[in-house]
From TrEMBL:
Protein name, entry field: Na(+)/H(+) antiporter NhaA
Superkingdom to which the source organism belongs: Bacteria
GO cellular component: a single term: plasma membrane
Membrane topology category: Multi-pass membrane protein
Alphabetic keyword roster: Antiport, Cell membrane, Ion transport, Membrane, Sodium, Sodium transport, Transmembrane, Transmembrane helix, Transport
Pfam short name (any one): Na_H_antiport_1
Catalytic activity: Na(+)(in) + 2 H(+)(out) = Na(+)(out) + 2 H(+)(in)
Source species: Ornithinimicrobium humiphilum
HAMAP family in the cross-refs: NhaA
Chief place where the protein resides: membrane
Residue spans crossing the bilayer: 30-47, 67-87, 108-128, 140-158, 165-189, 195-212, 224-240, 246-265, 286-310, 316-344, 356-383, 395-414
Length: 447
């Protein structure tokens, strides 16, 4: 790699990474639209004459008391279904580390630092707005999250010709952001830790990891494949983690990390770079379930807020918790992500890649202000379900996500028009192999 490439921030990356990220973004787009539709349905229902039915369904309890599994339907969606989403986050994060941009520090340092800045600055803004009110300050983590599905859906609709580097930056940024959110949930929102349950959970976890790392299905012939055997083991691990006092979604991330990304060669069998492991199977089978069912159902039961008409909405919009969240997500993300990216670039003695402009980075930073899914989860963990502060926090999340989506779309739509000619030229400029020459000329494609 040349010195110039070392001094460049947010370069185009390899062709394989562009294809992989493009595939992920396409799959998340439909999920983002379903997420928005489910949230809108919940808001309308919760403020309709039939609102009592909505809240009655959400608060209906199901399950058994042992292992603390007597939960409301809303809690089952947050603790159970959302674990599938976090399992996918774990898989994607491991992919980024093993075969994505996070495997190389020179490429990982910018999105990692930007994600940290995009968490710290919104939290500081929220704390500054609500300083002195200890009850409200417990929600400091609410404006730190980025909803990858929602943000990606907006980017896919308005950014068809944006440089691939921007899409990679958004996805990597969101994945690292999710990791930080996971750590916050695990550390801050874990109470009454039961060590015996946590110790017991290590048994199914070890068994899960052992089976997941096998090169072939657990049993040959007509026996069940490994992924089908792993499912009940994973459920047992999830239940034990839930009973230990750690938020059950963390179980999904841990299980995702145990799944191999590449195939492991057995004795006497060759393997090759980039060979896909069980992670590819899980992603194929579970991404539609996560994006099409788990996240929209969680959004449906979490987004329902009775604002109490125009007066209630006005009161909620003026609440300090709402103002802190809106400023944190909309303003804090722009300052935190763009500012940190600029600072790290300067400290490394680098320049922004010639194919990009800082307004592009700012546009992606605005989209990162769409908090939604993880923000809703953190709001419920911070303030509880159905509380006044919780409802105000949700109003803040809705308003901030809408503003971030509209402002981000406005910026990136203008930039999309600018890049249209360049993107079309690169698409046309390809050999019979279908790979744009620009990736072959700089050696970023490796067959």
């Amino acid at each position: 790699m040349s010195d110039q490439q070392h001094r460049t921030t947010l370069g185009r990356g390899s062709y394989e990474e562009v294809v992989r990220v493009g595939d992920v973004l396409r799959k998340e787009t439909v999920g983002g639209m379903l997420l928005v539709a489910a949230a809108l349905l919940a808001i309308v229902w919760a403020n309709s004459p039939w609102a009592e039915t909505y809240f009655s369904i959400r608060d209906t309890e199901l399950g058994y008391e042992p292992w603390h599994l007597r939960l409301s339907i809303g809690s089952w969606a947050a603790d159970g279904l959302l674990a599938i989403f976090f399992f996918m986050v774990g898989l994607e994060l491991k992919k980024e580390i093993v075969i994505g941009d996070l495997r190389r520090w020179d490429r990982a340092v910018v999105p990692v630092a930007a994600a940290v800045g995009g968490v710290v600055v919104p939290a500081l803004i929220y704390v500054a707005v609500n300083w002195g009110d200890s009850d409200v300050l417990t929600g400091w983590a609410v404006p730190t999250a980025t909803d990858i599905a929602f943000a990606v859906a907006v980017l896919a609709i308005i950014g068809s010709h944006l440089p691939p580097a921007l899409r990679i930056f958004l996805l990597t940024l969101a994945v690292v952001d999710d990791l930080i959110a996971i750590l916050v949930i695990a550390i801050v929102y874990t109470s009454d830790l039961e060590l015996p349950m946590l110790a017991w959970s290590l048994i199914p976890l070890a068994l899960y990891a052992l089976i997941a790392r096998r090169r072939r299905p657990l049993f040959r012939g007509s026996m069940l494949p490994a992924w089908l055997i792993l499912l009940p083991i994973g459920i047992v691990f999830w239940a034990l983690v839930h009973a230990s006092g750690i938020h059950a979604t963390i179980a999904g991330v841990i299980l995702g990390f145990t799944v191999p990304v590449r195939l492991k060669a057995e004795r006497g069998e060759p393997t090759h770079e980039g060979a896909h492991g069980l992670a590819e199977v899980f992603e194929h089978r579970l991404r539609p379930l996560s994006a099409g069912v788990a996240v929209p159902v969680f959004a449906f039961f979490s987004a329902g807020v009775a604002v109490g008409g125009l007066d209630g909405l006005t009161s909620a919009l003026m609440a300090p918790v709402t103002i802190g969240i809106v400023l944190g997500l909309v303003v804090g993300k722009i300052i935190g992500i763009t500012g940190t990216t600029w600072l790290v670039t300067r400290l490394r003695g680098a320049n922004l890649d010639p194919s990009l402009r800082w307004i592009d980075v700012a546009g992606v930073s605005v989209l990162a202000g769409i908090g939604f899914t993880v923000s809703l989860l953190v709001a419920e963990l911070s303030f509880g379900v159905g509380t006044e502060l919780g409802d105000e926090a949700k109003v803040g999340i809705f308003v901030a996500s809408l503003l971030a989506a509209l402002l981000g779309a406005a910026i990136l739509t203008a930039r999309n028009r600018h890049y249209r000619a360049i993107a079309e030229e690169e698409t046309v400029d390809a050999d019979e192999d279908g790979i744009p020459d620009v990736y072959q000329a700089d050696g970023s494609h490796h067959p």
